[in-house]
Design goal:
This protein is α+β, with helices and mostly antiparallel strands and 93 residues long. The chain has 3 helices and 2 strands. A two-stranded antiparallel sheet has the order 1-2. A hairpin with a 7-residue loop joins strand 1 and strand 2. The two termini are 19 Å apart. The longest helix is centred in the first third of the chain and has 24 residues.
């Protein structure tokens, strides 16, 4: 069923830019935490990973042997802000 234009949520370009910036800021904080606190990083990975990470050896011509990293992630744990967000998400997102 298509949404009627009168009830379809709208998002202003400035709202999207703000959401984009908030996500970028959160990812920066996450990267810092992953590098700086091993215990918290392990807990964060447990929240993100659906299953174990797989490293598969691969050979690329003219390159030293390397590995393919395969992982299935869930963003549910990352996006569960439970009211702690410093930002505002506009209606309709």
């Amino acid at each position: 069923m298509a949404l009627d234009a009168a009830v379809r949520p709208t998002t202003k370009p400035t709202d999207l830019a703000r959401v984009d910036q908030l996500l970028a800021d959160q990812l920066d904080r996450f990267s810092e935490m992953m590098r700086g606190d091993v215990v918290r990083a392990r807990r964060a990975l447990q929240q993100l990973l659906v299953e174990r990470i797989r490293f598969t050896p691969i050979n690329i011509p003219n390159v030293q042997r390397t590995y393919r990293l395969e992982a299935t992630l869930s963003l549910g744990g990352m996006l569960d802000l439970d009211g702690r967000s410093r930002g505002h998400v506009p209606d309709g997102i």
